[in-house]
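Margin note: ligand = zinc ion.
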Amino acid sequence: MTTIKASCPGCGDVELTPQQVRLVVCSVKSWSYYAFTCPQCLEEVRKPAGRDVVALLISGGVVAEPWAVPAEALEEHEGPVLSYDDVLDFALWLEQADLVAAAAAGPGPAGPRRTASEPAA
Ligand SMILES: [Zn+2]
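Resulting structure:
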């Protein structure tokens, strides 16, 4: 049986079976990792898994789990961060909005804040 040697931050070197190692291979290569529960202290240890580590673990019998990150999670966002007040304003606006799609298609990012009862300045 293959023995996989890994390192626990608290206990040092430990020996694991392939079944004790979880290997997650992400579509974003730098997010791939392997994890195991340390057999001595029972803490979960998680470490990044570069291409070499992934290949080594797979060759040792560890089954790789694919992890596909949704494209929207990788989008870059510009502008100010939404605040709690922004979300509250939007929720209040939604309660009285009849034509949400039309407002969303309207001009400018302030579109949803303008309502019939609250004319734009
Ligand atoms: Zn440990």
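The chain has a mean pLDDT of 88.
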